[in-house]
């Protein structure tokens, strides 16, 4: 079966972004032993925690202040981004910032985090609208295949095992699949815009050299980078992720110029 992007807009954005957090967090944890670099996710920002139910209307140490958030936080070319979509992402972002703040001793900047959350939702909606206008759809088979790839990257035996691990972090399998659908949609959109995403051997070698240099500069002399052949697949995934991010970012710049966007926060 094939889905249109509009059908699953709410799940794709709000719940999907939370699933991304869990999937990316899982990837980082399981790949520490041999990953060539820590920042290989398609999302440029670090992944937030997955317990998205900690928020309260008045705000507390365990969650952000949710008072005053309108039912419609933004409108993108006539499409509404709702409070129900916004809150889970905002809570997850707040949790990540709170964890970082505990190390630095500063409270999270809730105004900045709100802006980040709504901007992420607006960007996702813009890309989804562009994909829909180009007739790009994502099949269940494509989602299944990507889940299998993620499971392999996380050194798990199957997609089912990966989804069970995500569920233990508080997210449903539907949410995880929704995020993967978004990821595949963006990749298909980028391929339609810029051609196939196929990093060259030269690019992979350059990325490997960059990773080795970064590790040397970090002072982690006791942790040697594995041989190129051993981490080639990870390097290729990282290079693909970077290319997707660059092309999608460029597309968003153009889409925002022509878009009718209203932020109500």
Short description:
With 265 residues, the protein is mainly α.
SSE inventory with pairings:
Blueprint: E1 2-3, H1 9-30, E2 72-76, E3 79-82, H2 83-104, H3 110-133, E4 138-139, H4 140-153, H5 159-168, H6 173-194, H7 201-217, H8 228-258, E5 261-263
Antiparallel strand pairs: 1-4, 2-3, 2-5
Helix pairs in contact: 1-2, 1-6, 2-3, 3-6, 3-8, 4-5, 4-6, 7-8
Can you tell me about this structure?
The structure is a single chain. With 265 residues, the protein is mostly helical. It contains 8 helices and 5 strands; from the N terminus they run E-H-E-E-H-H-E-H-H-H-H-H-E. It has helices spanning 9-30, 83-104, 110-133, 140-153, 159-168, 173-194, 201-217, 228-258, and strands at 2-3, 72-76, 79-82, 138-139, 261-263. A 3-stranded antiparallel beta sheet has the order 3-2-5. Strand 2 (72-76) and strand 3 form a beta hairpin. The longest helix is centred in the C-terminal third of the chain and has 31 residues, at 228-258.
């Amino acid at each position: 079966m094939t889905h249109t992007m509009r059908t699953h807009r709410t799940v794709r954005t709000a719940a999907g972004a939370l699933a991304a957090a869990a999937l990316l967090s899982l990837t980082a944890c399981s790949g520490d032993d041999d990953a060539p670099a820590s920042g290989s996710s398609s999302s440029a920002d670090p992944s937030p925690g997955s317990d998205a139910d900690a928020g309260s209307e008045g705000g507390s140490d365990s969650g952000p202040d949710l008072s005053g958030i309108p039912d419609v936080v933004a409108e993108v070319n006539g499409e509404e981004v709702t409070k129900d979509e916004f809150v889970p992402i905002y809570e997850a972002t707040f949790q990540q910032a709170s964890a970082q703040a505990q190390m630095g001793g500063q409270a999270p900047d809730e105004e900045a985090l709100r802006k980040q959350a709504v901007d992420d939702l607006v960007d996702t909606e813009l890309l989804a609208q562009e994909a829909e206008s180009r007739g790009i759809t994502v099949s269940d088979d494509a989602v299944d295949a990507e889940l299998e790839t993620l499971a392999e990257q996380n050194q798990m035996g199957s997609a089912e095992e990966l989804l069970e691990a995500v569920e233990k972090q508080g997210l449903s399998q539907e949410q995880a699949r929704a995020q993967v659908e978004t990821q595949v949609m963006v990749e298909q959109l980028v391929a339609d815009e810029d051609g196939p995403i196929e990093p060259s051997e030269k690019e992979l070698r350059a990325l490997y050299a960059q990773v080795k240099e970064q590790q040397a500069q970090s002072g982690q002399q006791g942790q040697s980078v594995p041989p190129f052949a051993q981490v080639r697949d990870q390097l290729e995934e990282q290079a693909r992720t970077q290319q997707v991010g660059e092309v999608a970012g460029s597309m968003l710049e153009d889409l925002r110029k022509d878009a009718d966007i209203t932020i109500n926060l």
